[in-house]
């Protein structure tokens, strides 16, 4: 089955927890996974399946550990036409730019030719104290795109 590379952007760890939980679920379903916390572009295969999980901080900002990758995508516009990806954002609807980080990452990946699989998931931490729960439900639908 497909290999899935998780890319996390996190300030307080919630995106990392979600990614690790989802990776475990995919491993149990027979997929192989790798979880990278804030990787550089040179650490990523430019083909295959990525699952980006990021929180948002400040005014819709990308977490510090993911900012370098975002900057590389924006500045270098690498050819990611062989990448398919999923997108999960974690945020707080009380802020104007709810899940702004995943919206920015989604846009940057698409601009580089990557193709998103399924819908982007945006988790409101005010509604879901444990963001792994809605992410797990979303994963069941998302993994049908991996076949």
Beta-strand residue percentage: 25-35%
Report the uncertain regions. Answer: none
Superfamily (CATH H level) name: Flavodoxin domain
What would CATH call the class? Alpha Beta
| End-to-end Cα distance | 8 Å
How would a crystallographer describe the biggest sheet? 6 strands, parallel
Treating each run of at least 4 consecutive H or I residues as one helix, how many helices?
A: 4
Question: What is the arithmetic mean of pLDDT?
Answer: 93
CATH topology: Rossmann fold
* Count of beta strands: 6
Class per helix and strand makeup: alpha/beta
Task: Furnish the topology, listing elements before pairings.
Elements: E1 3-9, H1 14-28, E2 32-37, E3 47-55, H2 67-76, E4 82-91, H3 100-111, E5 115-116, E6 121-124, H4 132-142
Parallel strand pairs: 1-2, 1-3, 3-4, 4-5, 4-6
Helix pairs in contact: 1-4
What does this structure look like?
- The chain has helices spanning 14-28, 67-76, 100-111, 132-142, and strands spanning 3-9, 32-37, 47-55, 82-91, 115-116, 121-124.
- With 147 residues, it is α/β, with parallel strands linked by helices.
- It has one domain (3-141): Flavodoxin domain (Rossmann fold, 3-Layer(aba) Sandwich).
- Strands 1, 2, 3, 4, 5 and 6 form a six-stranded parallel β-sheet that branches.
- Strand 4 (82-91), helix 3 and strand 5 (115-116) form a beta-alpha-beta unit.
- It is globular.
- The chain starts with a strand and ends in a 5-residue tail after the last helix.
Outline of this structure?
It is built from 4 helices and 6 strands; from the N terminus they run E-H-E-E-H-E-H-E-E-H.
């Amino acid at each position: 089955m497909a290999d899935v590379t998780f890319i996390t952007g996190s300030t307080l760890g919630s995106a990392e927890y979600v990614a690790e939980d989802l990776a475990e679920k995919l491993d149990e379903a027979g997929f192989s996974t790798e979880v990278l916390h804030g990787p550089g572009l040179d650490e990523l295969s430019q083909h295959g399946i990525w699952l980006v999980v990021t929180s948002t901080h400040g005014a819709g900002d990308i977490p510090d550990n993911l900012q370098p990758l975002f900057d590389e995508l924006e500045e270098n516009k690498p050819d990611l036409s062989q990448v398919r990806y999923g997108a999960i954002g974690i945020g707080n609807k009380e802020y104007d730019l709810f899940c702004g980080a995943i919206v920015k990452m989604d846009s940057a990946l698409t601009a580089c030719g990557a193709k998103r699989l399924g819908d982007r998931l945006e988790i409101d931490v005010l509604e879901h104290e444990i963001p792994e729960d809605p992410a797990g439900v979303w994963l069941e639908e998302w993994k049908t795109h991996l076949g």
